Amino acid sequence: MSQFLFRNFTLLDPRWDEPRGGYEVLVEGETIREVSNKPIKAKTATVIDGGGKRTLMPGLIDCHVHVFLTEVNIRHLEAIPLTLLTAKSAELMRGMIDRGFTSVRDTGGADWGIKTAVDSGLIAGPRLFISGKAIGPTGGHSDSRRRTDYQPASCGCCNAMVYVMAVADGADEVRKCVREQMRQGADQIKIMCSGGVASPYDPLDSLQFSEAEIAAATDEAKAFGRYVLAHAYTPEAITRAMNNGVRTIEHGNLIDDKSARLIKSKGGYMIANLVTYFSMKERAAQFGMTADMLAKNDIVLEGALRSLEICKKAGVKVGYGTDLLGALQVDQSLEFIHRAKVLKPIEIIRQATTIGAEILRMEGKLGTVQSGAFADLIAVDGNPVKKLELFLDQGKHLPMIMKAGKFHKNALK
């Protein structure tokens, strides 16, 4: 079994406030065998020397991505066959792991096939935690039909929109659809509780799934050992979701103090996504996003930073998420910079590591550097607690990226 000994780094375990010198880390196989502030004896291990100025830390976790939403205007997916979609998603996933994201939670679209391709090494990419199809009601955020379409397309072989989203109405249909996603290997279930930016026909403040439908989804997920995440922008949608068993709120830009306190009282999480709204405002029009969509984007953008302040005040744990579409996914690491307008760097790093691990229900296995954790590690050319910009430039400042004890990148040989 291969061994790698990391020495001459400063070590940043996000449970600490600052990186600490004098530590060594021994990786054996897929996991971390030992972390010590004394020299580790491992005669057969390959030594990886940090040169004294680099930081060793856990791989990053993005809790809201869409590897199959390869177009900024998702309507363009109507003309894309599944074969081309897969090829495009492979490029997007390689970009994610190049930027140091060794785990991502796909919140609608990715299936067991693409997850298996990554796990088996056929495609380079981060660990995928998949939701299967995002589920919503007729006329809601996941209804991919145009107003001229009265019947859904028969399959997703030549229309990728059908492949990434599902429509269900009534508690019984929701139960069946949730069960189907879990049969297909979903790690968690995604439902729609409010309107969205990228869907042209539903107002942002629309309340979508009913309480009975949400409860059906959460009941089935719990019975299968899974959980439900809810697309929800407004206090009303957040409240409806949390009161009916949802575990994580996605976006939450228009949250208020009362709904934030509710999330806290229920032990839930919010996964904020700031960068996607800034990037869409700047560049989405050139990729075909319509004026109506961009108008809704302006509304949620206004509340983006404020939502972080409200959650911090209420003590709500917030995960790192980006929700970027297609070509905009190159901005994934800019989320650090936008959050820094409100939060301290170490707080944001924890959101992208230890809190992300909690959301994935992988505490002690991901987002940390400790014995028994997966060997998902990145080296940074400097101290990211002092300079978050080290996460930018598409991984330029990350000379080493390891996932499950294997190097995706290693310039420290």
What does this molecule look like?
- There is one protein chain.
- The strands form five sheets. A five-stranded mixed beta sheet has the order 2-6-17-18-19, with no helix packed on it. Strands 12-13-14-15-16 form a five-stranded parallel beta sheet.
- The protein folds into two domains: 3-59 and 368-410, Roll (Urease, subunit C, domain 1); 60-332, Alpha-Beta Barrel (TIM Barrel).
- The mean pLDDT is 94.
- The chain is 31% helix and 20% strand.
- The protein is of the alpha/beta class and 413 residues long.
**Average pLDDT over all residues:** 94
The top level CATH class name of the largest domain: Alpha Beta
Query: How many H/I helices?
Result: 12
Strand count, sense and closure of the main sheet?
Answer: 5 strands, mixed
Radius of gyration equals 21 Å
- Helical residues, percent: 25-40%
> What spatial form do the alpha-carbon principal axes imply?
globular
Domain tally: 2
CATH topology of the largest domain: TIM Barrel
* Total number of strands: 19
